[in-house]
C-alpha cells in the first residue's frame, strides 16, 4: 500500500493511484513517429482529440475547510485536434505555431485519469526546456467550459481564447498554498485551484535548479511555485498582460477595451514624473542648513512648483497635513500652503511620496540643528495613562542628556582585563555599554571576536592565543582541501557554478569602500569575466574565504547575499583566518535566512506580522488593505540585517549592537518596527498599494538615521515587554478572580463541589513570561499580585501573545537547526 503523498517531511513523493481504468480504445504515450495514429482518437461529441502539452501535479480543489476533503489532481494545457471542417484552414498539430483557439486549460482529479495517469506523471516530470520532446496523446478532458456545468468531481476544461483573466496568488506567510482562479469572458469562474508545491515532484526539482540562480536582491525575491509554471505555459502560446492595478491579475488575449481599465498606458517620456519617483531627487538637506535655508529655499522653490505643476492629482489633505506639522520650517509650510500646491489633485503617487519624504527630511535636519543628538538610556516616550492602553506612535525627542557617552575604546577595554587577561566586568554590563555606546573603530578587531563567540567571555589571554592558533591552522587546512584539488574541482559543474557566482558577487560588493575599491593587480584567472578589468588582493581574499565556506558548509554552501555579510567583517579584521571564523560564527545566526525553502525568512515575517498587529493595529489594517501585510517589503532588510539600508559605518555600529543580544536575539525585528513607526504617517496617508509600499521602503536606502532608529527600537521593545507582562499579570488575576467566584458558589449549601477544582490548572492559561539567561540590569520581574478592586470589574479582553512573540523576549540565538 502506498503512503499518502506529502505525509511527512523528507519522505519520497508518492502519487495517488488512479481509480478507474481509462475509456476503452484510448491511446496515449505516442511519440512523434506515431502521431499519424492520432486521427483514431476523437472526442465523442466534437470529433476532436487532445495532445498533452504541459501538466502540473498535486494541484488541489478544496471543497470544504477540512483538509481531508481536498481533491488532488492535475492542471493541464492540452491541444485539441481541429474539427474536420477546419482542418484545411487551421494550423496542424505538426506545426510549430499552435493557434490559441485550439488550446484548453483543464483540471482533472487524479482518480479520473485511469491508465492515462502515468502519462500525466511523465509529462509533469519532463524538463521542457529541451528543444526536442515527444508528443503525448491522452483521452480528452470533459467538455465543461462553464462553472454552471461543472461536474460533481469539479473537473473542467475551458478554451484558452475564452479566458478573460487569471488571478495568481503566490504562497505567503499567511497562506501555505499558492492559488489560481480562472475567469472567463462570459463571467464564469471555476473552483479555485491550490498548488501543494511540497508534494509536487516537478516543482521540487524546478526549485532545486533555481536555487543556484537565486537572487534575493532582484526585482522578485519570492520563492518559485507551481503557478509561475502555469503562467509560463500561457505566455508561451497566448498574449498575457500583467495588470498594473491588480498585481495578482493577468489578462489573457486582452482586447483594447480590456486594456484601458487594467493596463495603464506608458507615460510620456518627457514627463518629469514618468516612471519611478526615484527619478525625482530631493534637495540635499544638509546643504540647506550648511548654506542657509533661505538661500537654498529660493533656489528650489520654483523647481518644486514646476515639477508639481505637472501633477494633476495631489490631494489637498496630503499637502495640508504636511504643512501643518510643527517640525516643518515656516518657509516650507508657506510654500506648501500656496494656491499652486493646494489646488493640485491626487493622481501621481511619485509626487506625493516625494513631497512627504522631502518635508520629513527637512524637519529632521532642522531638529538636529537645534540640539546635539546624544544616545541615552534615559530617553522617554509619550504613553497613555492606561498601563496597557492603546498603542500610540512614538513621539521621541532625542534626549538632551548632557552626559558625554563615548564609544568603548581598546584602552578602556584592556583596563577591564586582569593580569591573566580575564574580563573583570559582568558580561551584561559590557553588553549594555556596547549596545548603547558602540565600539571605537580601533577596538572592533578585538572585541568582535568576543561578541561573535570566537573567544569565551571567561577566557584568559593564553587560552585566546591557543584558540586563535588552532583556528588559523584549521583555516589553512580547509582552504588547502579545495585549493590543492583545484584542477579536479574545475571539472565539477556545481563547484564551477558556485565559484562563478562568488566571483560575480564579490566584484560588486561594497566597491565604494576604500579597502575594496580599485584594481591594482592582474586577475589570476584569465577566463574570468573580470580578467581584463583586474582585481585587488582584498577581493581575492574574499573569494577564497567564500569558496572555503562553500566547501566547509556542505549543507548550505554559498548563497547570494553572504558576500554582503562577510565584507564588513573582513574590512575590520583584515586577516583571512580571523575573518573566516568570525563569519562562520555570524552565519550560525544568519544561516536560517538563506535556507532553500525560505522557512527562516518566513518565520521572521510571520513574527513581525504578529508584532505589528499587537503594537499598532491601525497600521496593520492599513498594510493589509494595501496588500502588504506579508511584509515582503522588509525581506531584503531582514535578510542581510539592513546592510544596504544604512551607511557603511552605521552598519558596523548596528551589527555590533545586535550581536550583544542585550534585549533580544531578534532585536533586528524591532529595528524594522522602528522604521515602520518612523514612516507611519507617510505610509497611512500616501501609500495604498503593494507596489507603492515596496517602492517607498526600497528607496529609503542610504537615508535612514541610525541613532534615531536605535532609540525608537529600544522604546518599542520596552513597550512590547510591558504589554506582555501586563497581559500575563491580568490573565493570572482573571483566573484568580474566577477561582474565587467558583469557591463562593460551591460554598452555598446544597451546591456540589467539583473534585480537584482548587488544584487543577485553568485550561488555556497563558505561559509565564519568558525568562532570559541572566537578569538584565534594571529589569523587573512580572508579578502575579491581583490588582485591588479588579474583582468588581468585567474581565478585560486581553491581546493574544503568540509563541513567536514570546520568543522575542529571549536572548538565546535562534539557529537554522533550532527554529520550528
From TrEMBL:
Coiled-coil regions listed in the entry: none
Start and end residues of each Rab-GAP TBC domain: 438-662
InterPro entries: Rab-GAP-TBC_dom, Rab-GAP_TBC_sf
Protein's name according to its UniProt entry: GTPase-activating protein GYP7
Biased composition regions of type Pro residues, renumbered to the chain: 764-776
GO cellular component terms, semicolon-separated: cytoplasm
Record's keyword terms, sorted: GTPase activation
Sequence ranges of Polar residues compositional bias: 739-760
Originating organism: Ascobolus immersus RN42
Superkingdom of origin organism: Eukaryota
Pfam family, one: RabGAP-TBC
GO MF annotation: an example: GTPase activator activity
Basic and acidic residues composition-biased segments: 257-270
Chain segments carrying region Disordered: 1-33, 251-275, 737-803
Amino acid at each position: 500500500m502506498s503512503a499518502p503523498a506529502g505525509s511527512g517531511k523528507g519522505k519520497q513523493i508518492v502519487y495517488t493511484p488512479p481509480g478507474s481504468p481509462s475509456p476503452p480504445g484510448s491511446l496515449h504515450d505516442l511519440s512523434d513517429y506515431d502521431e499519424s495514429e492520432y486521427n483514431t482518437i476523437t472526442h465523442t461529441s466534437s470529433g476532436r482529440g487532445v495532445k498533452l502539452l504541459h501538466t502540473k501535479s498535486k494541484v488541489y480543489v478544496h471543497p470544504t475547510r477540512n483538509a481531508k476533503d481536498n481533491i488532488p489532481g492535475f492542471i493541464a494545457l492540452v491541444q485539441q485536434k481541429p474539427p474536420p471542417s477546419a482542418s484545411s484552414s487551421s494550423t496542424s498539430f505538426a506545426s510549430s505555431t499552435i493557434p490559441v483557439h485550439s488550446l484548453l486549460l483543464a483540471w482533472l482529479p487524479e482518480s479520473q485519469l485511469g491508465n492515462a495517469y502515468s502519462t500525466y506523471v511523465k509529462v509533469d516530470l519532463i524538463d521542457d526546456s529541451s528543444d526536442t520532446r515527444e508528443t503525448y496523446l491522452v483521452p480528452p478532458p470533459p467538455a465543461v467550459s462553464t462553472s454552471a456545468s461543472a461536474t460533481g468531481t469539479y473537473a473542467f476544461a475551458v478554451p484558452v481564447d475564452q479566458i478573460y483573466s487569471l488571478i495568481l496568488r503566490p504562497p505567503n506567510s499567511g497562506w501555505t498554498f499558492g492559488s489560481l482562479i480562472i475567469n472567463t469572458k462570459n463571467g464564469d469562474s471555476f473552483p479555485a485551484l491550490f498548488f501543494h508545491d511540497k508534494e509536487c515532484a516537478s516543482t521540487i526539482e524546478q526549485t532545486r535548479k533555481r536555487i543556484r540562480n537565486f537572487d534575493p536582491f532582484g526585482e522578485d525575491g519570492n520563492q518559485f511555485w507551481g503557478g509561475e509554471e502555469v503562467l509560463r505555459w500561457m505566455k508561451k502560446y497566448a498574449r498575457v498582460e500583467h495588470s498594473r492595478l491588480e498585481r495578482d491579475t493577468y489578462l489573457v488575449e486582452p482586447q483594447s477595451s480590456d486594456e484601458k481599465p487594467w493596463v495603464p498606458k506608458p507615460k510620456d517620456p518627457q514627463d518629469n514624473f514618468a516612471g519611478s519617483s526615484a527619478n525625482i531627487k530631493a534637495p540635499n538637506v544638509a546643504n540647506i542648513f550648511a548654506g542657509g535655508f533661505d538661500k537654498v529655499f529660493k533656489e528650489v522653490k520654483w523647481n518644486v512648483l514646476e515639477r508639481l505643476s505637472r501633477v494633476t492629482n495631489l490631494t489637498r489633505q496630503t499637502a495640508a497635513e504636511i504643512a501643518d506639522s510643527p517640525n516643518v520650517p515656516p518657509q516650507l509650510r508657506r510654500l506648501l500652503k500656496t494656491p499652486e500646491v493646494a489646488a493640485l489633485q491626487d493622481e501621481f503617487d511619485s509626487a506625493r511620496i516625494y513631497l512627504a519624504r522631502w518635508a520629513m527630511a527637512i524637519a529632521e535636519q532642522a531638529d538636529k540643528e537645534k540640539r546635539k543628538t546624544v544616545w541615552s538610556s534615559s530617553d522617554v516616550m509619550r504613553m497613555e495613562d492606561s498601563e496597557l492602553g492603546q498603542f500610540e506612535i512614538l513621539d521621541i525627542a532625542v534626549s538632551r542628556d548632557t552626559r558625554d557617552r563615548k564609544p568603548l575604546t581598546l584602552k578602556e577595554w584592556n583596563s577591564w582585563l586582569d593580569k591573566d587577561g580575564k574580563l573583570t566586568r559582568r558580561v551584561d554590563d559590557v553588553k549594555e555599554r556596547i549596545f548603547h555606546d558602540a565600539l571605537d573603530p580601533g577596538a572592533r578587531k578585538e572585541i568582535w571576536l568576543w561578541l561573535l563567540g570566537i573567544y569565551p567571555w571567561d577566557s584568559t589571554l593564553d587560552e585566546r592565543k591557543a584558540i586563535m592558533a588552532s583556528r588559523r591552522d584549521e583555516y589553512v587546512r580547509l582552504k588547502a582541501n579545495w585549493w590543492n584539488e583545484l584542477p579536479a574541482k574545475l571539472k565539477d559543474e556545481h563547484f564551477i557554478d558556485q565559484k562563478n557566482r562568488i566571483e560575480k558577487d564579490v566584484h560588486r560588493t561594497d566597491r565604494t569602500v576604500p579597502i575594496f575599491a580599485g584594481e591594482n593587480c592582474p586577475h589570476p584567472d584569465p577566463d574570468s569575466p573580470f580578467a581584463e578589468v583586474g582585481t585587488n588582493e582584498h577581493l581575492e581574499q574574499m573569494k577564497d574565504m567564500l569558496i572555503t565556506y562553500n566547501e566547509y558548509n556542505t549543507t548550505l554552501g554559498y548563497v547570494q547575499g553572504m558576500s554582503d555579510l562577510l565584507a564588513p567583517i573582513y574590512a575590520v579584521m583584515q586577516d583571512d583566518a580571523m575573518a573566516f571564523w568570525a563569519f562562520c560564527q555570524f552565519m550560525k545566526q544568519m544561516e536560517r535566512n538563506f535556507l532553500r525553502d525560505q522557512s527562516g525568512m518566513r518565520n521572521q515575517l510571520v513574527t513581525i506580522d504578529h508584532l505589528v498587529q499587537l503594537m499598532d493595529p491601525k497600521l496593520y489594517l492599513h498594510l493589509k488593505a494595501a496588500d502588504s501585510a506579508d511584509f515582503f517589503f522588509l525581506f531584503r532588510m531582514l535578510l542581510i540585517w539592513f546592510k544596504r539600508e544604512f551607511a557603511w559605518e552605521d552598519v558596523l555600529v548596528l551589527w555590533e549592537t545586535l550581536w550583544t543580544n542585550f534585549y533580544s536575539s531578534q532585536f533586528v525585528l524591532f529595528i524594522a518596527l522602528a522604521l515602520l513607526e518612523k514612516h507611519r504617517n507617510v505610509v497611512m496617508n500616501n501609500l495604498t498599494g503593494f507596489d507603492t509600499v515596496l517602492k517607498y521602503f526600497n528607496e529609503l536606502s542610504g537615508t535612514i538615521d541610525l541613532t534615531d532608529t536605535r532609540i525608537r527600537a529600544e522604546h518599542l521593545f520596552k513597550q512590547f515587554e510591558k504589554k506582555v507582562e501586563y497581559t500575563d499579570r491580568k490573565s493570572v488575576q482573571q483566573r484568580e478572580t474566577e477561582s474565587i467566584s467558583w469557591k463562593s458558589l460551591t460554598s452555598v449549601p446544597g451546591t456540589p463541589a467539583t473534585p480537584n477544582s482548587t488544584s487543577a490548572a485553568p485550561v488555556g492559561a497563558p505561559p509565564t513570561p519568558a525568562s532570559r539567561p541572566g537578569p538584565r540590569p534594571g529589569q523587573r520581574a512580572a508579578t502575579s499580585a491581583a490588582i485591588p478592586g479588579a474583582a468588581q470589574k468585567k474581565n478585560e479582553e486581553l491581546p493574544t501573545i503568540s509563541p513567536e512573540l514570546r520568543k522575542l523576549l529571549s536572548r538565546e540565538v535562534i539557529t537554522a537547526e533550532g527554529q520550528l
